[in-house]
Amino acid sequence: MKATFLLVATNLGVMAVLAVIFELFGINQALAQQGSSSWSFLAFACIYGFAGSFISLMLSKGMAKKQMRVQLIENPSNDTERWLVETVRRQAEKAGVGMPEVGIFQQPSPNAFATGANKNKALVAVSTGLLQHMNADEVEAVLGHEMAHVSNGDMVTSALIQGTINSFVIVFAQIIASMLSRGSNGRSSRAGYFATYMVLQMVLGFLGSMIVMWHSRHREFKADAGGAHFAGKHKMIAALEALQRAQQQGAEGAMAKDFKAFGIVPMNGLFATHPPLEKRIAALKSL
Description:
Layout: H1 2-24, H2 27-34, H3 39-68, E1 71-72, H4 79-95, E2 101-105, E3 112-115, E4 123-127, H5 128-133, H6 136-152, H7 154-180, H8 190-231, H9 233-249, H10 254-261, H11 277-285
Parallel strand pairs: 2-4
Antiparallel strand pairs: 1-2, 3-4
Helix pairs in contact: 1-3, 1-7, 1-8, 3-7, 4-6, 6-8, 6-9, 7-8, 8-9, 9-11
């Protein structure tokens, strides 16, 4: 899911910027002097960690629009755009959430995402490849899948998990950096400490994102069930099967790269945002 990748990437950037700001104002040094067991340090780590996560969440919709070059459908100019807006509107009413912004972005592979810090002010966007490779029933199911993400508040849940991870990262990065940068005289070099701390924060933050990706894979099954609720089980299964066909047809070309980049195809690695399509189809059939 592009939204999940953007959330994680933005979070890492925000955390790095905050670390530099705190270093310039001497906050990091004051905390380090208090000791890693200090309650004030632990409280700060939580505030710092969750602040970074929620700043990323607040930026998520704007970043997605910019990075994906989403063209919002404010005044539908053709039947396809009118159908997209009305389908999302109908599903939003069924879900009991506010009408999201609807947009289209240029990409040859079938793709879609939903993002936003507030389920009543979300964004749902589909690729041009999705509209080209899928029929109306399949697109309706994909929209239902994304609306399920919105109504379930998945982006907020991801931000809460990311905030918890950030807090642990700050604590462990602080402890390890203090140990590694300590000289033979028992005193730490400030420059060495901060450089080590920054590297550790990025590395541990990157590794910690595996948990966010695990959660992303887990929630896809629930979103598929939501798509089946909004559009029909047979339509949701057909949409996933269409993704399989498109993946196979583009297995050796640029389309395959797009699929891998945006986590919409089976990626069995720890950083995959989606479970394998065959598992998702099997789970739907067993409903």
